[in-house]
């Protein structure tokens, strides 16, 4: 019995346990933090900090909007310039061939030849613009006898195989849509879900742009809402611009 009494006396003499001391320490810290917060609220320090944070966030939001507007304006200007080049190259090609625009229908070889000629302004714009891809669609098709042929558009779609934080010249460009003959002649790698033509029914705003009858190209431009790009992992916003011939007739769209 004596050893037991001595153990009890030693435990009592040791004071509170480590767990109890830790609990008391935490409780004291909570009380201290509560006191500090109460003091800050009473003196108005917290409201001043909240006001500063709100002001900083407001400035950041305005700067972000300004940067986005600037980028959209730049893309619009680049797309309009490309559309004008495509229209001029189209007129020159038809004049050299001595054919009318509608005669391109059901003529895949001539369409492929035209796409190859229009590749340069398309590729140059892609290299200069901050976008993931670029394409044009003309109001003709290689086979008018196919079902839903009215939705098919001969055209060329170039895009980057993967968006990398590098300059455009270091990224790999692939052919997503376009005539196989064109891609081979330009030594372009084809996307694993490549198709020879574009389906205008799947391109938001294409009908509205091709129906444009105004005099100013800028008035025919259309930014679409964010949409999922078919057969890819991407979600994109599209800028559709009409392609006009020398007489002002809409012959397709550039995106």
Total number of helices: 6
Helix content: 40-55%
Using the CA coordinates, give the radius of gyration.
33 Å
Low-confidence stretches: none
Task: Give the N-terminus to C-terminus distance in angstroms.
Answer: 95 Å
E-strand count:
10
Largest sheet: 8 strands, mixed
Write down the overall geometry. Answer: elongated
Overall structural class, as computed from helix and strand content, comes to alpha+beta
Mean pLDDT level: 81
Helix and strand string, N-terminal first?
A: HHHHEEEHEEHEEEEE
- Strand-residue fraction? 15-25%
Task: Describe the protein in words.
- Helix 3 runs antiparallel to helix 4.
- The chain is elongated.
- Strands 1, 2, 3, 4, 5, 6, 9 and 10 form an eight-stranded mixed beta sheet that branches.
- It has six helices and ten strands; from the N terminus they run ααααβββαββαβββββ.
- With 255 residues, the protein is of the alpha+beta class.
